[in-house]
């Protein structure tokens, strides 16, 4: 029986067919990976800002965290402590502003109730208006001093629209709070497992892009560090200096305006409106010298910070022209909001490095 049916020789697959099958499989795996990456990003699209903020926090704090880890050792309470400090840095100013805003709203409601009962008394400057003093006085007495007319005017406000606005504000606050909590959670795990994440990231970068991938990542990380120093720290410094000036000149709410100045100064040239507003408030209080001091000091501080300090801190860390940095900051802020202050310079740093590598002159020495 075995002689009638000799064993079949193994089938030989042509080399061309084997190579073709391997190419198809590699392409299929690539498309499958891209599909899952795309659908994963789509699934997390509402949480991507929180994850990116967590990454920005972790990159900014990583050098300081490494020094603390070398001193106190690796444990779970160290990343928790760093995360708690970051939370307090953001929550304390927001709480102060919220308390102040609640006081202002309560004062406004009390003023509205007083107006409904007593009307608005005529200011002393109305009868002194040129050309229209009589008409203005008559109009004010007929419309503004009468509690009945003002009460009818205030009741005509769309209360339902105001309630809808309140609900929208509440939902936005809840959403922002949730995203901030996820940012803190991301920060905690990135600090806790930072060495593992860096090691895996380097392996993946070498496999995909080779040695240039690591250079690209280092350039982007340097841009985040430079942006932190050049925008956040410089902005806080400007806010501290101008806050001291507000207090010395007797400006209203100096702490609140100092915080607003610090936040506005994180974006180049954006601190001018805040300083100008404080100067106008001082003028309204008949403090001409205080307004001049605030405006002059603010001009010097903003000019020095935007033209000398920031270019050195940001451009020096990334070896990038300040024009690229400025375009990254302004373009990123316009596109992604506050998060764009860090993403914009990082993207421009990557583009600058790619441009440098692409246009680098290579001299190949070949033997004749």
UniProtKB/TrEMBL annotation:
Residues 189-253 form the Cyclic nucleotide-binding domain. Keywords: Membrane, Transmembrane, Transmembrane helix. It is a multi-pass membrane protein. The keyword DNA damage does not apply. One of its GO terms (cellular component) is membrane. InterPro entries: AI-2E-like, cNMP-bd_dom. It is found in: Membrane. Belongs to the autoinducer-2 exporter (AI-2E) (TC 2.A.86) family. PANTHER family: BLR8064 PROTEIN, TRANSMEMBRANE PROTEIN. This is AI-2E family transporter. It comes from Gluconobacter cerinus. The lineage of its organism: Bacteria, Pseudomonadati, Pseudomonadota, Alphaproteobacteria, Acetobacterales.
């Amino acid at each position: 029986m075995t002689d009638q049916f000799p064993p079949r020789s193994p089938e030989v697959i042509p080399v061309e067919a084997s190579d073709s099958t391997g190419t198809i499989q590699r392409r299929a795996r690539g498309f499958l990976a891209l599909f899952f990456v795309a659908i994963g990003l789509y699934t997390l699209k509402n949480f991507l800002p929180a994850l990116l903020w967590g990454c920005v926090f972790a990159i900014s704090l990583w050098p300081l965290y490494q020094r603390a880890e070398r001193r106190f050792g690796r444990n779970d309470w160290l990343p928790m402590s760093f995360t708690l400090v970051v939370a307090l840095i953001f929550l304390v100013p927001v709480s102060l502003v919220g308390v102040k805003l609640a006081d202002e709203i309560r004062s406004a409601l009390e003023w509205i109730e007083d107006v409904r009962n007593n009307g608005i008394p005529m200011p002393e400057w109305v009868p002194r208006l040129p050309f229209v003093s009589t008409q203005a006085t008559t109009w004010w007495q007929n419309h503004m001093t009468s509690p009945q007319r003002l009460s009818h005017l205030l009741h005509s406000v769309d209360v339902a629209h105001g309630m809808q606005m309140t609900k929208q504000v509440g939902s936005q606050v809840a959403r922002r709070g949730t995203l901030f909590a996820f940012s803190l959670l991301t920060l905690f795990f990135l600090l806790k497992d930072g060495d593992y994440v860096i090691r895996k990231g380097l392996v993946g970068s070498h496999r995909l892009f080779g040695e240039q991938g690591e250079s690209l990542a280092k350039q982007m990380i340097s841009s985040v560090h430079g942006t932190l120093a050049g925008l956040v720290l410089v902005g806080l410094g400007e806010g501290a200096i101008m806050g001291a000036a507000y207090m010395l000149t007797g400006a209203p709410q100096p702490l609140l305006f100092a915080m607003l100045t610090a936040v506005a100064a994180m974006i180049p040239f954006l601190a001018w409106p805040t300083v100008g507003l404080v100067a106008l408030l001082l003028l309204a209080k008949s403090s001409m010298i205080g307004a001049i001091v605030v405006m002059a000091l603010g001009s010097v501080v903003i000019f020095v910070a935007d033209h000398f300090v920031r270019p050195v801190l940001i451009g020096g860390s990334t070896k990038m022209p300040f024009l690229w940095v400025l375009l990254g900051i302004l373009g990123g802020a316009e596109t992604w909001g506050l998060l764009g202050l860090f993403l914009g310079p990082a993207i421009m740093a990557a583009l600058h490095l790619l441009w440098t590598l692409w246009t680098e002159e290579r001299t190949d020495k070949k033997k004749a």
